[in-house]
Amino acid sequence: xxxxxxxxxxxxxxxxxxxxxxxxxxxxxxxxxxxxxxxxxxxxxxxxxxxxxxxxxxxxxxxxxxxxxxxxxxxxxxxxxxxxxxxxxxxxxxxxxxxxxxxxxxxxxxxxxxxxxxxxxxxxxxxxxxxxxxxxxxxxxxxxxxxxxxxxxxxxxxxxxxxxxxxxxxxxxxxxxxxxxxxxxxxxxxxxxxxxxxxxxxxxxxxxxxxxxxxxxxxxxxxxxxxxxxxxxxxxxxxxxxxxxxxxxxxxxxxxxxxxxxxxxxxxxxxxxxxxxxxxxxxxxxxxxxxxxxxxxxxxxxxxxxxxxxxxxxxxxxxxxxxxxxxxxxxxxxxxxxxxxxxxxxxxxxxxxxxxxxxxxxxxxx
Length: 366
Ligand SMILES: O=C(O)CCC(=O)C(=O)O
Ligand SMILES: [Fe+2]
Hints:
This protein has a single domain (46-364), classed as Jelly Rolls (Sandwich), CATH 2.60.120.330. By secondary structure, it is an alpha+beta fold. The strands form three sheets. It has an eight-stranded mixed beta sheet with strand order 2-3-11-8-13-6-5-4. α4 (104-118) crosses α7 (175-200). The protein has eleven helices and 15 strands. The protein has helices spanning 23-28, 67-72, 75-91, 104-118, 122-126, 133-136, 175-200, 207-211, 282-287, 343-351, 359-364; strands at residues 52-54, 64-66, 94-98, 138-142, 156-163, 218-226, 238-241, 247-252, 258-262, 265-268, 276-280, 297-299, 307-315, 321-322, 341-342. The chain is globular, with a radius of gyration of 20 Å. β9 and β10 (265-268) form a beta hairpin. The N and C termini lie far apart (45 Å).
């Protein structure tokens, strides 16, 4: 039975901030062994989509891209890697990136710092609770959109804008330095990948960089914490959705939970060390006029170890109007399939809607 604990505290405190109950706090409360009913998430067990397969059970393996061949490979290796990236973006909207340019020690340090943030006292984190990330640059929260979510998700998060202007919470100590270095390295990695992606679309190497105004592009770190959940089959960490932006470079703490939808089936992505999980996001789908598909994904929870994932969103500048690349269009055989929209307006649309599948992307589809 779901417990009747009050799920969220919505009164303003005397400093004007609206505090909320984090799932970390809930999960650590004494004798906590059933979730409040507001967290119950039901999927239809008869729906074929609900069959979840492990990564090594499917005949069609998740594509793996060796980044070193894109950057340092000979002509043939580079050409093949660009072709493989294009195929992965088209068929999966997802790939695993190995041999990349971010050191294992920096990735581990970043994961440790994110844990240290979530382990701060609630009052230190709640300073960032009432913000909106596009305006204030740091937002700490729970679920997705507490005021709009029909049911709550088993997830706490912090989102931090790190480009074009770098922001960081003041605590924990060392967070700022580590996240600055991690942000710089992942931004460079994302831009290099987008060069390969431009070429894979038959466009000039800097096409995406220039048209998406990446000199002032948006980079956001979005860290998710999924504490142990006593009834994991009843709850969901993040529901099926696709991300805004061009690419999402995801890492995690060695605990699995990410599932991607491929050809109508959910695939469990095993925990990977020292790799980036690269997710094609909505703005790459739009600019490629649907040739590349943003991947629908979700985060399952467990009653074992705490899971943490850290997404790095590589996105157009907030005032870029993202529309299908005219170079890829043809009035008869390939007319524009999406209307143009400013990135900031797209983010607001996502923020103010329920997170579900491609519901936001569908609003700009013609
Ligand atoms: O935790 C995960 O693996 C997925 C996180 C995610 O989808 C997101 O941050 O957008
Ligand atoms: Fe996501």
